[in-house]
Amino acid sequence: MKRLTIITFVLLGAVLLSACATSGGRGASWPGLSADANNAYLADGSLVYAIRLSDGAKVWQYPEKSAGQIFYSAPVITPDGQLLVGSAGNDHGLYSLDLATGKEKWAAPFKAEDHFFASPLVIGDAIYAPNNDGTLYVLKLSTGEKLWSLHISHSLWGAPVTNGKLIFVTSLDHFVYAVDPQTRQIAWKTDVGGSVPDSPALSTDGSTLYVGSFQNKLTALNAADGQIRWTADTKGWVWGAPAVEGDTVYTADINGDVYSFGAPNGKNAWPDIQPDGPITGSPLVLGDGVFVVTESGTGFAYDRNGTPLWPNGTTIGGKIYSTPVLAGDKILVTPMNTDFLLVALNSQSGSILWKFTGK
What we know:
Among the domains are: 1-119, Thrombin, subunit H, CATH 2.40.10; 275-359, Lipocalin.
């Protein structure tokens, strides 16, 4: 039943995302979240919010009134004070907002051919933005002007990552792609056997890429040439990106299982760990373990041996599909089907510190 529930949500979500209703309020898909030292930045339906971390107060919202934008992907904070967020609405825009005020920085947002579901990647003075039309758009950071583009494949839903040499992009067509930004061509591509809706994760030294897929597997690839180093079985689809900490790769599946794989060999070090519902978000690495949230609206923390740190978990409410974010000593979570949009938890105890309602 749990698997049926989440699969139904995923399939319905894909349909709703492609339609992208433009009415006000919360959107059809789960929200996107990021944070810096002072604020959380929440992309939720027709609005983007800045929320003060100290007390959960609203700093600003964008726009005053929706003009067709629908925001799902996690906003990206740039070194020069921009907040980048793509729209999955009918405008097909990528927006640059002033981090302090929420005002538009670019006079004319870039227009793509289709919706933005993935967060962009910033490298130097360029933005690498995957689009649902299968194209990687490269824009000038200061103006949003299009520099070049590369059509890669079918729908691109995961944010790219880079090891400083290549840019790695996942696709729903079962392939992982490495793009060389110097030649502006695909350096290699590897079939991992199932759709990859989220980002890959890189090893600390940038030599290995870890990818979860709907093939019920976690796959480790050589970042230089895309050769498969190992695969590890999971009991269900892996939706969220893996989380890497040293020689450990944490991942979770929509059956609700949580894994601790050895980075060198793909061996699971944990016993069967299954909290209370399907997991679509990525695990969040804490100082002494890992934190996951479930569709059932609960958060769970485990130490490096898989022992629960909070025996009964923390009840948040609603349904949770997004990846939590660590902001200082707070864990930020964005549930759906609740009367609040964002909740902050104490990262040590799991206790609720504040809730943000959007007002």
